[in-house]
């Protein structure tokens, strides 16, 4: 039986392993003996990309470009001297994998390696999301102003009016069931009940970092950030989706309506 269909993903993993071997003169082999291995992380990143596909106007497939890897405290401490080099290699290999699938991403693939409290040795967690910021940053601060995306994600007539810089009084916002209005700014807005969220909602059914809205001046992409209870749009659970005016977003017991004026 031919192994033809398997060749492309395997070749990415093989190239990744070969680069790791020469990266720090075999130090990786010692660091990862008996604990989590980088190939396992790359495999998980590939699965996350597959699981978070969103179809854009024009039939293109958008997948996450930002991957946060949480390692156990023990693994993280052992890896610390090599974390930056490993993140760079993971990002390059993930970009190769995405390219071979002919999927689309915003700008560069970003990988960040963090300490995951509560994870047992050898365990890790991958969080994938669409990140549209013009600068690499761990998380957008309130008022964060992202630059333009590295490719025209929404050039098939699916935008909400004039492109950025062409005037127009568009007012893109979320409206809660009790009438509260939350205007959306250009860039990324994290919704949650924790301190890191830009839009904080006092709902115990909402995770601390529950979902993210990325507004590039053309459309808004909603991405679930691995929340406990999930994110619903018009009654359907979603991982990442481009919003349309009038869409109903449900997080926990909170319902927000997506509105566009102007």
Automatic annotation (TrEMBL):
Question: Where in this chain does the entry annotate a coiled-coil region?
Answer: none
Q: Which residues form the FHA domain?
A: 189-238
Supply the alphabetized keyword list: Phosphoprotein
Query: Its domain of life?
Result: Bacteria
User: What Pfam families does the record tag this protein with?
Assistant: FHA (PF00498), FhaA_N (PF12401)
Q: Which InterPro entries match?
A: Cell_Proc_Reg/RNA_Proc (IPR050923), FHA_dom (IPR000253), FhaA_N (IPR022128), FhaA_N_sf (IPR042287), SMAD_FHA_dom_sf (IPR008984)
Spell out the SUPFAM superfamilies in the cross-references.
SMAD/FHA domain
Q: What is this protein called?
A: DUF3662 and FHA domain-containing protein
Look up and give the organism this protein is from: Micromonospora thermarum
